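Database export, one record per block. Field names are fixed; values are copied verbatim from the stored entry.
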Amino acid sequence: MKLKDMIIAGLVIFIGVYILFFSPDPEPQEPIITTVTEIDTVFTEVLKEVPKYVPKYIDRVVRDTVEMPLDVDTLAIIEDYFARYIYSDTLKVDSLGFGYITDTVTENKIVERSVVWDYRIPSIRETITTTIQLPPKRKREFYIGLMAGGTQTDFSYFGPSIGFKTKSSKMLTATYGVVGADKVGVSVGLYSKLF
């Protein structure tokens, strides 16, 4: 083997060892972060009863003249005056719900009132979901294949080839095959990821 061939082989081995063992690893891949925000409107049911109260006297309107019928049942008038009448009413509060009012009237006065509110208050609930997707872990890989070569005039090389990829994306290949008609050749390749 000539000195020139030994120097070239030494340089190839030196560069290969440097790329395989001493070149920096590629930058780690950043995780993919996805954030989804969902906004829901939730209605809170409220059933509230207002404490009973007696309405306050504000004003009295008296008529100037009162027509008296000829046939008067005084006992029925007095019974009606002291009887208790219960009136109920329902108030709609927009689209939120209802208010139920019950009034008790006797002696020409509202003596008792109860109010029950039944409504739903909308409240907004926000849900934030964050998903972190980690990049796949790098692993070692092995390959097997065939290598063929030649020139414009003849087919000169053919044989099996194997490859090994490291976790840091460096590739080492080796091929063993027939060169020409009567010689056996070996080739070794070393690759490093550029992009």
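Remark 1: The first strand starts at residue 32 and ends at 53.
Remark 2: The chain has two domains: 38-57+70-129, 136-195.
End of record.
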